[in-house]
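Researcher: Quick one. two chains, 266 residues in total.
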Amino acid sequence: MQFIFFLSSLTLLISILFIIFINDLLYSALLLIVSFLSTSIIFFLLGSCLAGFLQVIIYSGAILLLFVFIIMIINKKDNFFIIDLDIKKFFEFFLFFLISSIFFVDITYLVLKHLNITQFYKEVDMKRVGKILFSDYFFIVELSSMLLLESLIISFYINKDYKDIK
Amino acid sequence: MISIFYCFILSVLIFSLGVFIFFIKNNLFLMLIGLEIMLNACLLLFIVSGNYWNDANGQIIYIFIITSSAAEVCVSLSLLLKFYKINNTLNINLLSELKK
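Model:
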């Protein structure tokens, strides 16, 4: 089990590293799909089946499909996305790496102080999640459906052609 | 069994790589990909901490974040298409000038 976890995390990190060094938009979108699928494997291993299913269905099925469609619409052949490796950008990266590592040290300190680390994961079943989702959080589910409709309307109005009106 | 440490280390590594992509690329599309990677790291942290305490609220927060992410991607990709139709490029250094 641990071996599968390390293997999937290795594929995740390698696919994200290849996004940095590859010079093709379509390949970077496909590598993003690979990284999301390996994340869903980690979710299944941890015992949260609903999150794994949603990761496969929504993220790598619906959202990444939008990315691939946009690449097909753009169809840009020029090499306009050259990586510029400045020293200043590397400095910014190390600054943010420092910030995230401080965050990591903070979390590990909290976990070490208060919790037993060798405790096993327990499976959170789907039925419990669904019961809580449609009883306590029912209003937020309705609000999220309204949010999706709103985003559809906004994207429709952004891409509308106003030449015919004038 | 999988320790919670490995998940934390993995999440922080993914987050820092997403920040790296966001800062080093000058293409608008790849910056969006970096944003998605950072969101993925946060989702992993939510799921891990929710399962550790045997709490269902982690997965519920996951569902709401994934919904907002879908809305965000929809609007930002339509904006990107409009930018590309007007300026014929996706370079962020050219797009950042509001008025020439």
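The first helix of chain A runs from residue 2 to 21.
Researcher: Thanks, that's what I needed.
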